[in-house]
Amino acid sequence: MRMVSSLDAAEHLQRELSHLGIPSDVHDGYGLALVSVWVGLVVWCDCERFWWRTGWDAGRKRSIYAWHPILEPARAAGRIARRYADVCRSYRWSNEIVTVTHEVVQGSKTA
């Protein structure tokens, strides 16, 4: 079996996410690679698996994680896409961003 580097795995996942219309950035170092997808959605990659935070266990006061083998990046991307939809729906924009976005939209309508 061929060993896959964490960076190769992260870049493959990034391509699969892109096919689903989800932009992301890849960063690597110290034997790990990260795929930054959205605020609060970062996927870590090592040479064996992808893993990402899916929630919070208040009773144990710790994060809950999902993981998927790196040998199935397309399936992992599908699972991450569902999480992406969840975090996008639940993200609360700051008042400043809402105001600036509204001004930009209104400015483009008058131009």
Helix content: 40-55%
Structural class: alpha+beta
How many distinct helices? 3
Low-confidence stretches: none
Give the biggest beta sheet: 5 strands, antiparallel
Query: Given the C-alpha coordinates, what overall shape results?
Result: globular
Write the layout of secondary structure elements.
Elements: H1 6-19, E1 25-29, E2 32-38, E3 41-45, E4 49-57, E5 62-69, H2 73-90, H3 95-110
Antiparallel strand pairs: 1-2, 2-3, 3-4, 4-5
Helix pairs in contact: 1-2
Any overview of this molecule?
By secondary structure, this protein is an alpha+beta fold. It contains three helices and five strands. Strands 1-2-3-4-5 form a five-stranded antiparallel β-sheet, covered by helices on one side. A hairpin with a 4-residue loop joins strand 4 (49-57) and strand 5 (62-69). The N and C termini lie far apart (58 Å). The mean pLDDT is 88.
Concise overview:
Helices cover 43% and strands 31% of the residues. With 111 residues, the protein is an alpha+beta fold.
Pick out its properties.
111 residues; alpha+beta; 5-stranded antiparallel β-sheet; globular
